[in-house]
Amino acid sequence: MPQHHPFAHLHREELKRLATAGALAVVPLGATEQHGPHLATGTDWFTVDALAHEAARLAAIDGLDVVVTPALPFGSSDHHLIFGGTVSLRTETYLQVLKDMLRSLALDGFQRVFLLNGHGGNQELAELAVRDAAGEFPLQASAASYWTIAWDALVAAGAHHGRNLPGHAGDFETSMMLGLKPELTPGPLPHRDAPPDGDPRPRNRWRAEQQGSWRAIDGYTDSPDQAHAARGREHFAIIAREVAAAFVAVGK
Question: What CATH number belongs to 4-202+212-251?
Answer without folding.
Answer: 3.40.50.10310
